[in-house]
Specification:
- There is one protein chain.
- With 221 residues, this protein is mainly alpha-helical.
- It folds into two domains: 61 residues, Arc Repressor Mutant, subunit A (Orthogonal Bundle); 142 residues, Orthogonal Bundle (Tetracycline Repressor, domain 2), CATH 1.10.357.10.
- It is globular, with a radius of gyration of 19 Å.
Length: 221
């Protein structure tokens, strides 16, 4: 168990180092030597976990959807979808791995497959909106997959704008405004009236998700 824990920690150390180098220099300019120096590990340790710079980039990209943080279940699936957006917003502001992954997602670099996070978030949104539709939470014209794509694409633009203007300091406020504009066009009035899309929502959901993750880890296998 101790050896497994060390391996997990080493992998995360390498990912954090790669995230910093990718965020500072971008994918094309980043080098394995810089990542090794930042991580303070041997080349053998790095290649045990990751086969190449591209493999490292995919590892950082995958951190945007963290399976360790389970989204709290809500009776309203529209609220749950809002919570997914606000949780990602909070993590983008506070987690260097997520920031680096988003930067990689937005980079126009040939040879780097950046589609994974966009597809994953669209799948998450489509699933939640499909459940919301079955519960009568959406307006009749809504197509869940189409709306999910609009939300993911709009978020990508808003986060890019926030990064350029304030280095993400105003991101939660901007995303809250985005949702205030989008939700009335897809949600029935009775559900819309009860939605919490405040700028502080992400921190609240993160605290809940973190507690759930800790409780799950404490349960014996």
């Amino acid at each position: 168990m101790a050896e497994q824990a060390r391996a997990i920690q080493t992998r995360r150390t390498i990912l954090l180092a790669a995230a910093k180098v990718f965020e500072d220099h971008g994918y094309k300019a980043a080098t394995i030597s810089e990542i090794l120096a930042e991580a303070g590990v041997t080349k053998g340790a790095l290649y045990f976990h990751f086969q190449s710079k591209d493999d490292l980039a995919q590892g950082v990209l995958a951190e945007q959807v963290d399976s360790r943080l389970m989204l709290p279940d809500r009776p309203s699936k529209v609220q749950e979808m809002v919570d997914a957006v606000m949780l990602h917003t909070y993590r983008l502001q506070n987690d260097p791995l997520v920031r680096a992954g988003v930067r990689l997602s937005m980079e126009q670099q040939p040879g780097l497959d950046r589609s994974g996070p966009f597809r994953q978030w669209a799948e998450v949104g489509t699933a939640l909106l499909t459940q919301a539709q079955a519960q009568g939470e959406l307006l009749p014209h809504v197509v869940p997959s189409e709306t999910a794509d609009v939300i993911v694409g709009s978020f990508a633009g808003i986060q890019s704008m926030s990064q350029s203007i304030s280095d993400y300091q105003d991101l939660s406020t901007r995303v809250s405004a985005l949702l205030r504009h989008l939700m009335p066009s897809v949600t029935v009035p009775s559900v819309l009236a009860s939605l919490d899309i405040s700028a502080s929502r992400g921190a609240t959901v993160y605290a809940e998700a973190f507690t759930l993750a800790e409780e799950q880890q404490a349960v014996p296998a």
